[in-house]
Design a protein that fits this description.
This protein is of the alpha+beta class. The protein folds into three domains: 3-286, no CATH class; 291-403, no CATH class; 412-471, Arc Repressor Mutant, subunit A. It is built from 15 helices and 15 strands. A nine-stranded mixed β-sheet has the order 2-5-6-9-1-10-11-12-13. Strands 3, 4, 14 and 15 form a four-stranded antiparallel β-sheet that branches. The chain is elongated and about 95 Å long. The N and C termini lie far apart (69 Å). Bound molecules: zinc ion.
């Protein structure tokens, strides 16, 4: 049996207003090559200086990732030539900001620690655009944008674990607010390295680049594991190389054979002094770390006795879980709030392709709806309809119910009258029902509810209908 071993390198942009080693603006949609200066373009004689905010945010990330911070870390030049790197080198760290961290993920066999080897600060490169007519263009606006590189140990065993890790990592980064971590904007990029072997020695690994979504990461890892096993089964050898994921063909393709570390000719950045981290800096950042996803997950499951899948949905967005907890605080039922949030509200947002921040339904709305249901003034279906209607208007629940006359019909006399009418209008169905076709009961309920605009109390309708039919 082959066993896969996977490590993942993540580059997350750090959310700052200016670049890592100069004062240029960081802005995603600026016109090409407008946010550049002699420092980030690497002209001779310029002196880079470090962005304090980026360092503080990186410290916050290292703490949230349970890593040990090096009080003294060192910037270094990684030398290589590529068109998107005008300087001919990238500033990174030879002694990293932090080491030995971990992220906890949930697997089928319980919690698993994905250990992190190192976390360091570096600068982003420019961006190449390849057009169809054999012309390539470069935008240097991105060159020098602060990046955090987070490297795991090779402890991931399959694509599912890889995705769980990446999701959890992205959640942590968003919770501590150091990056938008939007993959489509290139703010969160992952490069898995994959090897397979039959024993405990790690096989030769390949690295996959050009992954623009978690779906692509999952498919590429799966594909690469299978590709390597097929080669080994045929008696072939794996070549250590960098692969590109081809989204169109859904395959990995050779990009270049792997350069060794020596080829980068790392050396100490002569223009930057070592980075000294003080206890004050660390303590200040510690204070700013909120409850993190995994503890929130465990707490929600325990405190509210909710399912694992629902807890995962809630914690994916801290605003969503806060929203849920607020609604309970305001008096909404746990089951009802959970159902409305995870199916109705998420459904409404998905369908309208709108973000959570556009939603006008507040936790108070949910608590109010719950109160109306508890007092048997409206039924669940009406409540769901109301959610859809007020999603982006935020009209108060009581006002909406009154204006649309949605108060539940509980008066047995009027419900009986409607049932009599329904049975009269459907004589054939009544005959078939009385002959033993019990399935038609649901049809009668549906007809009666429809005639009362969905406002009847379903329990009463069911009971009265049964009584009336039994008398026939
Ligand atoms: Zn600049």
């Amino acid at each position: 049996m082959y066993k896969a071993t996977i490590g993942i390198e993540v580059h997350s942009q750090i959310k700052t207003r200016s670049k890592m080693f100069c004062g240029c603006k960081v802005e995603f949609l600026s016109a090409p090559n407008t946010n550049i200066c002699s420092i980030c373009m690497g002209e001779p004689g310029v002196l880079p200086y470090t962005n304090e905010k980026a360092i503080l945010l990186a410290i916050r990330a290292a703490l949230a990732l349970n890593a040990q911070i090096n009080k003294k870390s060192v910037f270094a030049r990684k030398n290589y030539y590529y068109p998107d790197l005008t300087k001919g080198y990238q500033i990174t760290q030879s002694v990293p900001l932090a080491e030995n961290g971990y992220v906890v993920i949930n697997t089928e066999n319980g919690e698993k620690k994905i250990t992190i080897h190192r976390i360091h600060i570096e600068e982003d490169t420019g961006k190449l655009f390849h057009t169809n007519d054999k012309v390539s263009m470069i935008d240097f606006n991105r060159s020098g944008v602060p990046l955090l590189e987070i490297v795991t140990d090779p402890v991931i065993e399959n694509e599912k674990e890889a995705i769980s890790y990446l999701k959890r990592l992205r959640q942590i980064i968003r919770y501590i607010d150091i990056s938008g971590a939007d993959m489509e904007k290139g703010q969160f990029r992952c490069e898995p390295n994959i090897s397979v072997s039959k024993d405990n020695r790690r096989g030769i690994k390949t690295e996959v680049k050009n992954l623009n979504s978690l779906k692509a990461v999952e498919k590429a890892i799966k594909y690469e594991i299978e590709r390597q096993i097929t080669i080994l089964e045929k008696g072939g050898k794996i070549i250590q190389q960098t692969m590109l994921w081809d989204e169109k063909e859904q395959v990995t393709k050779t990009m270049r054979s792997k350069e060794g570390i020596a080829e980068y000719r790392y050396f100490k950045e002569p223009d930057l002094i070592p980075l000294i981290i003080t206890n004050e800096m660390i303590n200040e950042q510690k204070e700013l770390i909120p409850e993190l996803p995994q503890s929130k997950f465990n707490r929600l499951v325990k405190e509210y006795n909710i399912g694992i899948n629902e807890a995962e949905i809630l914690i994916d967005n801290p605003r969503l879980s806060n929203y849920f907890e607020k609604s309970i605080e305001k008096g909404c039922g746990i089951k009802e709030s959970l159902g409305w949030i995870t199916t109705d509200i998420m459904g409404i947002l998905n369908k309208s392709e709108k973000k959570f921040s556009y939603l006008k339904i507040t936790p108070q709305h949910l608590a109010d709806l719950y109160k109306y249901i508890e007092n048997k003034i409206i039924n669940m279906n009406i409540a769901k309809n109301i959610l859809h209607e007020i999603a982006f208007t935020g009209e108060p629940v009581d006002k909406y119910i009154k204006s649309k006359n949605l108060i539940q019909i509980t008066d047995t006399k009027s419900i009986e009258k409607i049932i009599d009418e329904i049975l009269e209008e459907n004589p054939t169905e009544v005959k078939r029902y009385l002959k033993g076709n019990n399935k038609l009961f649901g049809f009668f309920v549906g007809q009666a509810m429809k005639k009362m605009g969905g406002k009847a109390n379903p329990t009463i309708v069911n009971k009265l209908l049964k009584d009336i039919l039994n008398r026939r």
